Amino acid sequence: MRSQEPACRDISFSTHKQAYHDMANHNSTTGTGGMDASILFEFTRPQDIGVGMFESLSDFAFNSNEYVGLADSIAMGAINAVIDCGGPVIPFRGGRIDATVAGPATVPEPQQDLASHIASFKAQGFNQTEMIMLVACGHSLGGVRKVDFPLIVTENVPTGIQTFASTVGFDNTLVHEYLNSTTENVLVVGANITTRSDLRIFSSDNNVTMQRLASSTTFNTVCADLIGRMIDTVPSSVTLTDVIEPFNYKVTKTFLFPQNGSLTFLASLRIISSRNAPTPTITMFWKERTGSFCPPKGCSVGTSDDTITDSSFLAQLKGVPFFDLFSFNASIDLKTSISHFWFEVNNNDGSTPFVVDNNGANYTIDQDVVLYDPLRSDTSNPFSVLVVGVRAPFFSFLLQKMLPPTDANISISQVKGPGSNPNLTAFTTLSGSDIPFTTSKTSVFALDPSLPPADGYTFYSSSISHIGQLISSNTIHATINGTAYSRWVPSLDIG
Ligand code: HEM
Question: What InterPro entries does the entry give (predicted)?
């Protein structure tokens, strides 16, 4: 079995529900609310409660960083939940912006009447037919937990969850069981008539829409469309990206730091691989930042490592069987440094070698003045020592004098998870884990006398404790002699 095989599990169901609850405070008239991760501030409300909701939020606790927020993770979670349960592939757009406060309490509740539900869905941007469809798509998965909704699940269920359909998976079994009156969906046939919201919704057009959904092709098409609209419902101030598809060449794991009289530059190029073709030969090229050192075609180095990995299940469904990661370890002339790099790929199949250069823009290195130094840093335990190299001013470099800059302010801001929300301590106890909040922390660097200047750089360090927390990204900010620099370091470790 491949490591990326899908698994349709409890967490898939609650992740899917969470996406709807996050979206459900959208108001299409005012253009406010939507998929904005405000659920993080709302999940103790009666309409949002449940262990499932908490667990799926915890699942995403470490995904956020300065560039990708929790709301995008929730949207991607819903897409994965649907495919993991055998449903259709829903396109993903990025760019959601996380809310910083709770939204209005407009998530529909099962005890409300039909008119309220029609009004709620209308505010969210869905008409009555679409409401029926979206609820049928949503309730294709999972069920109602007795522990959280004892007034709805009135009888004992061995698993604690009264499922909406008799089979597990994203399909229209729920629709068939509803139409042929074999359903055990408690929101249709539960003893508590007040909370039979699915019955009121499904039958609100005399079952015309439910009958349409009896075709599995229609069900899949309709659900892909409506769940896609659901996760793309955002405040009007937010513009989502185009649909994001896997791309052929992705540069990752770049590190530039001084070492043994040169600059070491590490980079990896991830390419889509079928495993059936010959292994390509890839060469990395680069150009100097200043002066001349490289031949006219650029300095170059071959691969130092090549690892094939499985792609995600979503990528497999999009026709990406494997990824091949080619690593490069280049020694860069210290004086002339590096300004940009690109690759030449020879597929070794008789075709002409070609250049991969970020569609003509090259992969640029914006500065070499402030560098994170992974070798001088120690991230092996929760008490990390992070080291930043600062290039000595030009004149002192020429004189071979490693003078520290006269004025250096360096700090690192880190996104960490989980943090804690003091208002929600009851849930901390309930779940046995921490609240899934990420927090941002800034630490200051000081000139480190234990690290002698070398290779034109002076070294600054900062001791950082992050016991029990995972760091999801880091950005170094520095002002050196009046000039501001910033460097994003997604991972502190070379490996
Ligand atoms: C009037 C509208 C709706 C009402 C009143 C409603 C109500 C409920 C209730 C009471 C539960 C049980 C929750 C639990 O035990 O954790 C539930 C579960 C669920 N709902 Fe809805 N829902 C509505 C619409 C939707 C929509 C539009 C979707 C998604 C498109 C959705 C997706 C789900 C999923 C996937 C579950 C199962 C969660 C699990 O098993 O962990 N619901 N819903």
Answer: Ccp1-like, Haem_peroxidase, Haem_peroxidase_sf
The answer to whether position 5 is within a domain reads no
Does residue 93 share a domain with residue 15? Answer: yes
- Cα–Cα distance between 121 and 229 in angstroms, integer? 13
Tens of pLDDT, residue by residue over 45-61, are 888 887 777 777 777 76
238 within a domain of the structure (yes/no): no
- pTM (2 d.p.): 0.90
DSSP string, 251-279: EEEEEEEEETTEEEEEEEEEEEE-SSSPP
Contact between 75 and 64 under an 8 Å Cβ cutoff? The reply is no
Residues 282 and 382 in one domain: no
User: Distance, CA 35 to ligand 1 centroid (Å)?
Assistant: 16
Residue 444: domain span:
370-489
Q: Is the CB of 287 under 6 A from ligand 1?
A: no
Residue nearest to atom 20 of ligand 1 (CA): 17
Structurally, the chain folds into a number of domains equal to 3
**CB under 8 Å to 274, separation ≥6 — which residues?**
321, 322
Q: What atom in ligand 1 is closest to the CA of residue 163?
A: 40
* pLDDT of 395 higher than 60: no
C-alpha angle 77-216-180 in degrees, rounded to nearest 5: 110
Write the pLDDT tens digit of every residue in 182-229: 999 999 999 999 999 999 999 999 999 999 999 999 999 999 999 999
In the reported structure, the alpha carbon of residue 135 is separated from the centroid of ligand 1 by a whole-number distance in angstroms of: 8
Closest-CA residue to 254 (of 263, 266, 262, 264) = 266
Do 205 and 255 belong together in one domain? no
Nearest CA to ligand 1 atom 19: 17
